[in-house]
């Protein structure tokens, strides 16, 4: 059985890692490069770095920060936020990231997924989606609507249909970040994660709401996610990557256990 990936998320505002609930009441948690290096040393599988206000502020990603993260870790990491073109995607990859996450841009211009996949390969193109529950089943039969601009804009697009379309365009991975669960640490939104995971053939990453190892197990077992993004439970120091993976292994989840620190070179 394939091991499940644990992916710490670094939400960055003005070169500082921050964490809030549904992108509100954010608290400064430190330097993104220092946190990336710590989680890498602890044995995380990948990382994701989001410049969470870049798209809303209509500015580019901080490439200098991306380069510093690349020099600090030796694992794949994705970068999202502030991407407005395939040229921006190329700059992020050249700065050292292995993947680029597109969210608001992809909704506004879906062809950018296909353009990125042709230029760099599907494995480099991640679709980030921020679905929210909706009662408007006429427009969104799955019961989940896509939002953009950091949850600020409701699009009327059905989350599952958008995931299938993005896969067809060439997205190599889909991150499902629930608006309703983001930052709550009360568990992932399993409903929308499973709907998307069962509808597409590419890896699906659960995001938003992790607070305990059982939440990750549920995302893997019940929602069929291939990976899970964690943030607050690590940033607060309540959990470490080794302890989290040990708990998941005890729960029967196949994970890559961290090697001794000395073996990481």
Highlighted features:
single chain; 265 residues; alpha/beta; eight-stranded parallel β-barrel; 35% helix; globular
CATH topology: TIM Barrel
Give the SSE string: EEEHEHHEHEHHEEEHEHEHEHH
Mean pLDDT: 91
What share of the residues lie within helices?
Answer: 25-40%
What spatial form do the alpha-carbon principal axes imply?
globular
CATH superfamily: Aldolase class I
Quick one: CATH class?
Alpha Beta
Count of individual helical segments: 11
Number of domain units: 1
Characterize the structure shown.
The protein has a single domain (5-256), classed as Aldolase class I (TIM Barrel). The model has no long low-confidence stretch (mean pLDDT 91). It has 265 residues and is an alpha/beta fold. It has helices at 32-42, 54-57, 63-72, 86-94, 104-108, 111-120, 159-169, 190-199, 213-221, 232-235, 241-250; strands spanning 5-13, 16-21, 24-30, 47-51, 77-80, 99-102, 125-133, 144-148, 153-158, 173-177, 204-207, 227-230. Helix 9 (213-221) links the parallel strand 11 and strand 12.
């Amino acid at each position: 059985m394939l091991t499940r990936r644990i992916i710490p998320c670094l939400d960055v505002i003005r070169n500082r890692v921050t964490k809030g609930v549904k992108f509100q009441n954010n608290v400064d948690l430190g330097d993104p490069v220092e946190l990336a290096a710590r989680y890498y040393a602890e044995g995380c599988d990948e990382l994701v770095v989001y410049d969470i206000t870049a798209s809303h502020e209509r500015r580019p990603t901080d490439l200098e920060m991306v380069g510093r993260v690349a020099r600090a870790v030796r694992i794949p990491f994705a970068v999202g936020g502030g991407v407005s073109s395939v040229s921006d995607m190329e700059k992020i990859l050249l700065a050292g990231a292995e993947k680029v996450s597109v969210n608001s841009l992809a909704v506004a211009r879906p062809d950018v997924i296909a353009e990125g996949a042709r230029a760099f390969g599907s494995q480099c193109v991640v679709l980030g989606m921020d679905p929210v529950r909706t009662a408007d089943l006429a427009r969104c039969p799955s019961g989940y609507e896509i939002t953009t601009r950091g949850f600020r804009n409701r699009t009327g697009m059905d989350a599952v249909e958008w995931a299938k379309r993005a896969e067809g365009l060439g997205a190599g991975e889909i991150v499902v970040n629930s608006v309703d669960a983001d930052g709550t640490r009360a568990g992932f939104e399993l409903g929308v994660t499973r709907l998307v995971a069962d509808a597409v053939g590419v890896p699906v990453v659960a995001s938003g709401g992790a607070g305990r190892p059982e939440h990750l197990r549920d995302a893997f077992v019940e929602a069929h996610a291939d990976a899970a993004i964690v943030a607050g439970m690590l940033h607060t120091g309540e959990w470490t990557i080794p302890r989290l993976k040990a708990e998941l292994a005890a729960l029967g989840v196949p994970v890559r256990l961290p090697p001794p620190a000395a073996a990481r070179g």
